[in-house]
Amino acid sequence: MSAAAALQPTASRARAGYLTPVPTPPPAAVVGAGLDRLGTVTMIERGRMLIQEQDPAEHVFKVLSGALRAVRLLPDGRRYITEFLLPGDYVGLAENGAYSQTIEAVADTKAIKYSRRRFDAFLDSDARAGRHFFGLVCGELSAAQDRLLLLGRKSALERMASFLLAIADRRSPDATAVDLPMSRSDIADYLGLTIETVSRVLGQLRTREIIDVPTVSRIVFTDRAALEDIGAGE
């Protein structure tokens, strides 16, 4: 699940109308240098599964590099991506007994894998760590509410603008470009759109000289203020 104590909205996030978790500060600065020593580094190749929905929630993971997607299948077989997990995000914090989603790598990903038992024991032994991760779980709930707003109230153009700003703001609140590790298909399934609509909306933003698309994965904001206005529904 996305880390965020952590929803620290910047002016641009507020204008975009879509708050997103900010990267988690290093554990050494937040919960003590001991946390990372409890885990082991694991690599997940692009397209491989890290977690299967309904498997016992025996581990917690922290993304170090790369990107993951959280996936659920609807009863009719359609895929639904609930979130993208980027460096600094934790996976499995709020799980109780079994994982509620399948987690897959959208790019080659490095993560730290913690035993749930040892992770929980660490939180029990460090009050500051417990407060920190409680804040992250609360942030997940806030992010879920923001996502309902994104899907239920915004047009396709507004959804795309909000999404691009949210991903870019993970790097810097004033970022003027973003590198997207996920495919157009992933973006479509996350935003509740078709691939054709994703391509059309990106084309509209490019035609209006609000963004440039020098490569498939890189989006340059040529007019960030206009993009923020679209995200905010203005």
In summary, what is this structure?
The chain has helices at residues 11-16, 27-30, 34-37, 116-125, 127-153, 156-169, 184-191, 195-207, 224-231; strands at residues 40-44, 49-51, 59-65, 68-73, 79-85, 90-91, 102-105, 109-115, 177-179, 211-212, 218-221. By secondary structure, the protein is α+β, with helices and mostly antiparallel strands. α4 (116-125) packs across α5 (127-153), α6 packs across α9 (224-231) and α7 packs across α8 (195-207).
Structure description:
The chain has 234 residues and is an alpha+beta fold. The protein folds into 2 domains: 141 residues, Jelly Rolls, CATH 2.60.120.10; 78 residues, Orthogonal Bundle (Arc Repressor Mutant, subunit A), CATH 1.10.10. The chain is 40% helix and 21% strand. The protein contains 9 helices and 11 strands. It has a 4-stranded antiparallel sheet with strand order 1-8-3-6. A 4-stranded antiparallel sheet has the order 2-7-4-5. It has a 3-stranded antiparallel sheet with strand order 9-11-10. A hairpin with a 5-residue loop joins β4 and β5. α4 crosses α5 and α7 crosses α8. The chain is globular. The protein starts with 10 loop residues before the first helix and ends with a helix. The N terminus is likely disordered.
